[in-house]
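Hello K.,

You asked for the raw outputs rather than the summary table, so here they are, unedited. I folded two proteins back to back in the same session to keep the settings identical. This is the first:
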Amino acid sequence: MEDTRVNLFLIGAMKAGTTSFMELLSQHPKIYTSPIKEPHFFLDELPKILYEPSSFFNVNTYFEKDFPKPLHIVHVTDSEHYKKLFSLSKDEIYKLEGSTMYLHAPNVAEKIYEYNPDAKIVVLLRDPIKRAFSHYTMLVGLSRETRSFETVMQNDIDAYNNNKLPWYSCLGMSLYKEPIERFRKQFKSIQIVYFEDFTVNKLETLNNVFNFLDLEGLSRLDAINTNPTRKLRFKWGMYLLKKMGIKDYFSAIFSSKFKQKIFRLLSSSKKQTISLQTETLKALEEIFKKESVV
């Protein structure tokens, strides 16, 4: 009987290029990718600050009427829904999904092992400070954060030093040592990829992963769309609109093309730079030394 279980997981890290990486992995004819890039099936609960679906979205309606429309992130909790994500696969060797919270969320490594102990795991890591800053700018862009990066890092450092740092925080998701060890304890086949290598040579990096998967490499990669991070001009105003629920109505009424146009008007393409006090930066560097992957 054919094994219908998912057997390839791209588990993060969040804001380390996993969306582009998964799109490129999907160009291999022997890899089938989930239409929901991040179903997060093996999490009991997703932190609200990282996942807050529109009040107009209903997961049951999606699977009844809209499947297999591509979506970025959904919390899929029904096992039949999870199976359906891969029901259109044909003769591919691998079924892939890429939920970025899997790496850091508690007990996920054990749950995936229980589901499929023969699964292969790919981890994409990024310079921890740059990843944390990208995480922070994402939260600002989603109207879920209004503090400065300096303030967020200082609070996270204090929480880390007092063993109270949430795993889903900007700093928490830049700590790689313990999460990697949890997956190494469960799985034999783990490949770690570095974002910096990926950006320098995409084809070589992808072919190294295909070799890890015992697949033939590709001679070229098709271009993919990328969305550069933009800075909101009125983050407090957008934050209030989000809290009032007005952003949900806006998203439900207008087309994606129109929403993108409005977002460009309300944001700046000017490159954002990391600005931290010397003391804060030094404290972070000390933490990352202790939490580096061996």
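The second followed immediately with the same parameters:
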Amino acid sequence: MGSESPCTLERDRRTAPGTALLESDHLLFRAGDERVKVMLADVTRADAREDALLIETSSATLTLRLPAGTAGKWLAKIRNPRNLLDKLGVKEGMKVVVLSVRDPDFLSQLEGRIGAFSTRTTRHADLVFFGVETLKGLDRLGALRDTLVPNGAIWVVRRKGKEASLRDIDVFAAARRAGLVDNKVAAFSITHTAERLVILRSDR
């Protein structure tokens, strides 16, 4: 999940009160029907002065007036963004299993960080990335739970938006049946989201 804050947007000699949302790859301002979205990859300059966050791209300049202390924190996130693997908690030396997740960017990043990973279930896994699109597929969670180390996690990767065939409540219900609990959600890609499931503390 990103960072959200009330703010005032200053752009093209206009001001508008609204809400700003800072995600790992973009900054979004919303005010009624108005939307201003800036991809962080397009930012050519970013600075913070007291309560003002200054953002420049090749085609626009905007200032966000934020609550005290927020501008500096957001600037740090913009200048040092966490990549996908950081958000997913992937660290060198981990034993990782990938099942039915075919995103090439994710797989390339994963191989670059940890080297080899398994595409079959294996014992004592630190992380399992499980791509699933059906309710029936969620029935595997119980078996996957048994492959984890006590403090391991399963990331359920599923399609989001209008194309979604599963809802978050479907994942959470299946998790409870398998003796798991959800404790984090992450934007996996433009088309997919991911929920992290872990073993109940009382069962570790």
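The CA atoms of residues 14 and 55 lie 15 Å apart.

Happy to rerun anything if the numbers look odd on your end.

Regards,
P.
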